């Protein structure tokens, strides 16, 4: 892994050195801001579904997700989507799906992008998260994840940063055709030491990294949605801020 600098506090890998808080997508102002649905105003914020793979209410993963949501930039509205009440996927139930499946699918269908926060269980991600992904991909021909911009944050109290879970989750995106943000990668190591008893971030480095990740994800959603729907909003850049 030579040549890939490691952020020591949270284990965040990056291909580039960059100023604190700067986005990884400096050309974002040149990307066409197309509406996700017909009639949507370009000023309306993107709606992001946040899915946490730990069901424990006070889990560190959930607290990191809360901290990240609190640092989302303007133009990106993040809402938690609960997966703890989803019955296990069973194809026998597809003809008359459980109401929890229907409600979950409705929430995902309304989203412009999805952020996954996952702990690492046995070098992979939790079964509840896989169950939610399966439910969102069915029935056949109705894959709600298709084309959905995605981001992954893995969280662990250990030094590995949950890399196994992070990449196992990304593997599912390939088949589901979910364009995943490649940089920055977020491996939140030693997570218990980063938050105080009230769930507040304890140090400036972690604060900066979470803000940078969320800004970069906002720009990633902008990029993916803009390219997919450019014909709905012709490109007419008004600013070159952030361009080199």
The secondary-structure class comes to alpha/beta
The SSE order reads: EEEHEHEHEHEH
Number of structurally distinct domains: 1
> Mind telling me the CATH class?
Alpha Beta
How large is the radius of gyration?
18 Å
Strand content is 5-15%
Q: What's the shape? A: globular
CATH fold field value: Rossmann fold
Low-pLDDT residue spans: 1-39, 229-244
Biggest beta sheet attributes: 5 strands, parallel
Mean of all residue-level pLDDT scores: 81
Please state how the strands of the largest beta sheet are arranged side by side.
4-3-5-6-7
Helix fraction by DSSP (H/I, runs of at least 4): 25-40%
Number of strand elements: 7
Please count the helical segments.
5
Distance between the termini: 28 Å
Overall CATH architecture: 3-Layer(aba) Sandwich
CATH H level, superfamily name: Flavodoxin domain
How are the elements arranged and paired?
Layout: E1 6-7, E2 12-13, E3 46-52, H1 60-70, E4 76-80, H2 99-110, E5 113-119, H3 127-137, E6 150-155, H4 163-176, E7 186-188, H5 204-228
Parallel strand pairs: 3-4, 3-5, 5-6, 6-7
Antiparallel strand pairs: 1-2
Descriptive overview:
A 5-stranded parallel β-sheet has the order 4-3-5-6-7, sandwiched between helices. A two-stranded antiparallel sheet has the order 1-2. Helix 4 (163-176) links the parallel strand 6 (150-155) and strand 7. Helix content is 30%, strand content 13%. It has 5 helices and 7 strands; from the N terminus they run βββαβαβαβαβα. The chain has a single domain, classed as Flavodoxin domain (Rossmann fold), CATH 3.40.50.360. The protein has helices at residues 60-70, 99-110, 127-137, 163-176, 204-228; strands spanning 6-7, 12-13, 46-52, 76-80, 113-119, 150-155, 186-188. By secondary structure, it is α/β, with parallel strands linked by helices.
């Amino acid at each position: 892994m030579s040549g890939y600098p490691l952020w020591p506090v949270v284990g965040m890998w990056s291909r580039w050195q960059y100023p604190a808080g700067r986005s990884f997508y400096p050309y974002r102002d040149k990307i066409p801001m197309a509406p996700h649905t017909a009639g949507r105003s370009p000023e309306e914020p993107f709606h992001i579904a946040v899915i946490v793979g730990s069901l424990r209410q006070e889990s560190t993963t959930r607290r990191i997700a809360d901290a990240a949501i609190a640092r989302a930039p303007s133009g990106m509205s993040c809402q938690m989507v609960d997966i703890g009440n989803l019955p296990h996927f069973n194809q026998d139930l597809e003809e008359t799906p459980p109401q929890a499946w229907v409600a979950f699918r409705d929430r995902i269908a309304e989203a412009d992008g999805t952020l996954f926060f996952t702990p690492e269980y046995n070098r992979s991600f939790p079964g509840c998260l896989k169950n939610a992904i399966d439910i969102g991909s069915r029935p056949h021909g109705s894959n709600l994840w298709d084309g959905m911009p995605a981001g992954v944050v893995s969280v662990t109290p250990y030094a590995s940063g949950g890399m196994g879970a992070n990449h196992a989750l990304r593997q599912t995106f390939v088949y589901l055709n979910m364009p995943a943000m490649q940089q920055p990668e977020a491996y939140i190591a030693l997570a218990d030491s980063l938050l105080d008893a009230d769930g507040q971030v304890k140090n400036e480095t972690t604060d900066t990294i979470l803000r940078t990740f969320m800004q970069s994800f906002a720009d990633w959603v902008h990029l993916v949605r803009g390219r997919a729907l450019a014909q709905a909003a012709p490109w007419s850049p008004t600013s070159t801020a952030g361009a080199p």
